[in-house]
Amino acid sequence: MAEWILCNSSDHLEPAFTHFPQFSPIGPLLASNRLAEQAGHFWQEDSTCLTWLDTQAPGSVIYIAFGSFTIFDQTQFEELAIGLELTNRPFLWVVRPGITKETTAMYPDGFMDRIQSRGKIVNWAPQQKVLAHPSVACFLSHCGWNSTLEGVNNGVPFMCWPYFADQFHNESYICDIWKNGVAFNKNNEGIITRDEIENKASVLLSNTMFKAKALALKEKVTSSIKKGGSSKKNLTDFIEWIHEKESDSE
């Protein structure tokens, strides 16, 4: 019965909006688009990672974050850790409390010593600022919609590791429609192995097409919220509709 349905999206991201005129995309809605700080986090952000990023070469760092709900078993957690090590690239990894089924995440033997010079691990990160940093090369993500919008808005290509719900749908957009990312394959035991992680990182970061696609999509999406853009127009139309309703009720 709603007269308007507003969506945090853009018609450049989801062309299906043309078939459903009752939906009005007005996004992407991000704190960075209004020069404000993001709020409402489950954990305290560790801003030291931004200082660490300042010391890294442009376009060199793999950023890894899985949102608030993804949980790994110990085997998968260790494969991820070793896979990141095998990439031989600097990485920033968000390992929040409760990310494994065990009480405390256990890293492989000697892992912390081996990656000490090129790895940074934090409990939580200021993600929008991280993704906007010139040192970040790609985003290994669970593909939650907010994270997806943040990555797209900053022109960052993805390595997709969905966990549940719409995240698999978002992975399809990234890999099959926007073509600004790659997906992982699981082995017969349902594990994404260290070799698969190393391989997909190499594929993504050695092919300039993914970054080019990511930057082209960023340009289209950010234009939609500017004057003359489709999202800007939809929001303006909604505001004018509210004013008309107020005038009618007076």
From TrEMBL:
It comes from the Eukaryota. Keywords: Transferase. GO terms for molecular function: UDP-glycosyltransferase activity. InterPro entries: UDP_glucos_trans. This is UDP-glucuronosyl/UDP-glucosyltransferase.
